Amino acid sequence: MGFVLLLLLISYIIIHRDAKSIKQYKRKTTDLIGQLEQSVQRNEALIASRKKAVHTITHELRTPLTAITGYTELLQKECSKENNVNFLQSIQQSSDRMRDMLNTLLDFFRLEARDGMPFHHIHAAGKGSWDTMRQTLEAEQLTKTPGLDVREYIYDMADVMRAADLVICRAGASTVSELTALAVPAVIVPSPYVTNNHQEKNARILEKHGGAQVILEKDATGEALYRAAGETLRSPELRRSMSAGMAELGIPDATERIYRTVMALRK
């Protein structure tokens, strides 16, 4: 009898635990669906309005944040004084980079607010820097600025990028492919922290074809980015020309080409 009661008790504990896990999963799923629905609604409104929309991305903040975390962990494990000095210097450099990028964005936001938000601005901060960005916007009293839509993450990037009249971004391979496939004009700040400076090389090709304006990071102040964005968004003729330049480089059937190549190699 005692053994049966023990089995019943164990069964109850397992069922209770599973029920709790299912409940937590449903709650997380419901929250995610809610976020997606809100994002879709905002993007549908944006596509309908098409009012000088500019889209900026700073997932690049993840790089210095990751470096700070990594070097801090190494400091805790390392006993060599020389190595510790190098780690501290790397942490300082990464912190400076993150501060500079945040200041650049804030300068851009302030100029927009000063001029009455001349365009609809969607900015993706990235999960790693979202808390810092949100707190900074609150301190600057920019959280309720009409036309400034700062998000942790854009769940449907294709819709937002398609709706944008201008994208301000880096020049990684995936980003370049998306810009050219959608023929979206861009102001590009290539990352200098990459192998063989390949992002600037990518960006220069787009610039050569008239699809993008390139601003090096050392020159990418908030004012410089704001001026470049304004010049592009105020000129429908310039945007059409830039869009045509992007389209020249686009390969919309890239997936089909890759598939055909793979299938041909199989024969």
Q: Reading side by side through the largest sheet, how are the strands ordered?
A: 3-2-1-4-5-6
Radius of gyration: 24 Å
Task: Give the biggest sheet.
Answer: 6 strands, parallel
Roughly what is the average pLDDT, rounded to an integer? 81
Tell me the total number of β-strands. Answer: 6
> What form results from the Cα inertia axes?
globular
Share of β-strand residues: 5-15%
What is the string of helix and strand elements? HEHHEHEHEHEHEHHH
Please give the count of helices.
Answer: 10
Structural class: alpha/beta
Show unreliable segments: none
Cα(first) to Cα(last) distance is 68 Å
- The percent of residues in helical segments reads 55-70%
What's the topology here?
Blueprint: H1 2-49, E1 53-57, H2 62-77, H3 81-114, E2 120-124, H4 130-139, E3 148-151, H5 157-163, E4 166-169, H6 173-182, E5 186-188, H7 198-208, E6 212-214, H8 222-233, H9 236-249, H10 254-266
Parallel strand pairs: 1-2, 1-4, 2-3, 4-5, 5-6
Helix pairs in contact: 1-5, 2-3, 3-8, 6-9
